[in-house]
Design a protein that fits this description.
- Among the domains are: about 270 residues, no CATH class; about 40 residues.
- The chain is globular, with a radius of gyration of 26 Å.
- The two termini are about 50 Å apart.
- The strands form three sheets. Strands 1-4 form a two-stranded antiparallel sheet. A two-stranded antiparallel sheet has the order 2-3. A two-stranded parallel ribbon has the order 5-6.
- The chain has about 625 residues and is an all-alpha fold.
């Protein structure tokens, strides 16, 4: 219990104290934040290695009382301070610690050039509240930590210009609105069960009230994780926020928390009917396809990564929507895998931005020799997210595919559509590979521009987190079936057997053998000796001065008749729930202002109409 209180209170208290340290000591503040994250990381390992725990804060009072206006604060308030560290909570806090340490190490160098005021205090408060949300058993306590995270998400955007300020406001409003909807869901749960304990609730969705409650909580989960249709803040945040903030929040922390809560409500708090299962699976494949299609036509590489952060959530939703043991394990596995390679991709993008100052793929190229560590890590991350064996993204996607095939043996409506779910999931993976060929090729391959001749690799504290994350992507892929899934995820989901003859270690060995044989053939036949010639155009040798922008190859997608209409409407924000809601509020406000005519009889009519409505409601 003391470790649980410590991992929450220590980062929050130190974060509050750091507000009083002047910004000119930013590096010292960063070092303090890193030390705090290491200490809490050690405590999470202690918690992870211990047994499951369920505690209330009033257990620490030892019978003591503290009366405030007749209210026993220690006992009565302590009932709501309930903490539960089961296998799911312990898994999440362990990886929160890992990503926090790596991103803080990266930030010590990167954030020097990013004028985010009080970056480290908000970072630590975010860490403490994230721990609090994950270990909270009481829904009101969970909502408290969850809501604070929306504020820190807003503050970790630098707000240096009008665009980033608008993005911060959009993020705060969307997250805040979803939190308000969650309050409705929690109130309904209290009315139905009389309990606010997440561990003690198991509601069948057989009536309208429980369905509304589930949908309200699902809205909060989808918004935090960045799933369709509440995803629109993620690409904007990725573009406007510092890369370290994007790597920490939309790429890792919000994914962990949003999917953690999705796991809670779909596997424990509610028993889903077949229509809600159909809804989840539909939302999953829609998130996959729509986001990856938007990523294909992006030129800003940070915004491209933002859309892929949305797309990958779809695979997690598919896993939990299946409801089977392998589906839940696959959803959790893909959640961790996505956090590994997506955080790495955002940090890699930050390295490119740090050295070049460019955010558009069209303005880059040929950086592989100048930034070898960043290129190597980015290549691993790109292959991982694209589902190429033997990397971790393939392992979790393969488990999702297996779960979908098993799901097809059922008799429900959603079960009969298993081919649709499988086909769209595989298509999404293929389109992901296509978009990352554009990203890696456009930034690191091709001809290097003369303005980047003096570009060098980023400082060591920036590329070390990249290499560690890339090695974890390899490790989690190679040892997924024999070690990672049985040790980390089966304790949460339950034990199951892998289908077929696929074994991650054996497949990795075959891949390694094929690479070695390819190198032997390459060296044996002297394939490295080949002739190159310059192009001959009108008697001029201009190959060194010409190049073709990689994103231009993808223009055809946006020019298809149907796709061109979709992309045009997307640019006009037709599918942005925030923008459409804003337009509706402005229209409604205009209509109400029109009613203020200044004529007294009109106001009297409005007063009486309001009284009649109130009487009807009271009756």
């Amino acid at each position: 219990m003391k470790e649980i209180i410590s991992i929450i209170s220590l980062p929050v208290l130190i974060g509050l104290l750091l507000f009083f340290v002047p910004e000119k000591f930013r590096t010292i503040k960063g070092i303090i934040a890193l030390l705090v994250s290491i200490i809490t990381g050690y405590l999470t390992i202690v918690i992870y290695s211990s047994g499951n725990q369920l505690h209330q804060l009033n257990e620490l009072s030892n019978g003591s009382t503290l009366f405030v206006f007749g209210f026993d604060f220690l006992h009565d308030a302590g009932r709501y301070m309930a903490f539960n560290c089961d296998n799911l909570s312990k898994l999440i806090i362990l990886f929160i610690s890992l990503f926090t340490i790596l991103i803080l190490l990266y930030s010590l160098v990167y954030i020097k050039d990013k004028r985010v005021r009080n970056y480290y205090p908000y970072f630590l408060i975010t860490l403490g509240c994230a721990y609090g949300a994950v270990v909270s058993d009481n829904l009101l306590l969970f909502l408290l930590f969850w809501g604070i995270l929306g504020i820190t998400l807003y503050k970790l955007i630098q707000g240096a210009d009008e665009e980033s300020s608008a993005t911060a406001k959009k993020t705060l409003i969307l997250i805040g609105a979803s939190d308000s909807i969650m309050i409705i869901g929690i109130a309904i749960i209290w009315k139905i069960t009389g309990s606010l304990s997440m561990g003690g609730i198991s509601l069948p969705t057989t009536n309208a009230l429980s369905v509304v409650s589930f949908l309200a909580l699902l809205t909060g989960s989808f918004t935090k994780a960045g799933a369709f249709p509440f995803h629109t803040w993620v690409p904007d945040y990725a573009k406007s926020a510092p890369a370290s903030s994007s790597a920490y929040l939309p790429a890792s922390l919000d994914k962990l928390l949003g999917i953690y809560f999705l796991a809670r409500i779909t596997t424990r708090m509610f028993i889903l009917n077949e229509w809600l299962t159909l809804l989840l699976l539909s939302a999953g494949v829609i998130s996959i396809i729509t986001a990856v299609m938007m990523a294909l036509v992006q030129h800003n590489y940070k915004r491209l990564l933002g859309f892929h952060a949305v797309s990958q959530v779809g695979y997690m939703i598919l896993g939990f929507g299946l409801g089977s043991i392998i589906g839940v394990a696959a959803g959790l596995f893909h959640m961790i895998n996505n956090t590994l390679y997506k955080s790495g991709l955002f940090l890699s993008a930050g390295c490119v931005e740090y050295r070049t100052g460019k955010e558009d793929i069209d303005d880059l190229g040929g950086l592989s020799k100048s930034m070898p560590f960043t290129f190597f890590a980015s290549l691993i991350f790109a292959m991982s997210i694209s589902g190429i064996p033997p990397f971790n993204g393939f392992a979790s996607k393969w488990m999702i595919y297996q779960g979908i095939i098993d799901f097809g043996s059922g008799t429900g409506i959603a079960n009969k559509l298993w081919v649709v779910w499988l086909g769209l999931a595989v298509l999404g993976s293929a389109l992901t590979l296509a978009s990352f060929i554009k990203l890696v090729g456009g930034i690191f391959l091709g001809r290097r521009r003369s303005e980047f001749e003096k570009v060098r690799e980023v400082p060591v504290m920036m590329w070390i987190p990249l290499i560690l994350l890339a090695l974890l992507c390899i490790f989690f892929g190679v040892f997924s079936t024999n070690f990672i899934v049985p040790k980390l995820f089966m304790p949460v989901s339950g034990a199951f057997l892998f289908k077929g003859f696929w074994n991650s270690s054996f497949v990795s060995l075959l891949v390694l053998i094929s690479i070695v044989l390819g190198l032997i053939l390459y060296l044996a036949f002297n394939l490295k000796k080949f002739r190159t010639e310059d192009s001959f155009i009108g008697g001029e040798k201009i190959q060194d001065q010409t190049s073709y922008s990689t994103p231009e190859f993808y223009k055809t997608i946006g020019e298809f008749r149907f796709f061109s209409w979709i992309y045009k409407k997307a640019e006009e924000r037709w599918f942005d729930i925030y923008d459409q809601s804003k337009q509706f509020v402005l229209w409604l406000s205009h209509q109400l202002s029109e009613a203020h005519t200044g004529v007294l009889p009109a106001y009297i009519i409005w007063v009486f109409a309001g009284l009649i409505v109130m009487l009807l409601i009271m009756i």
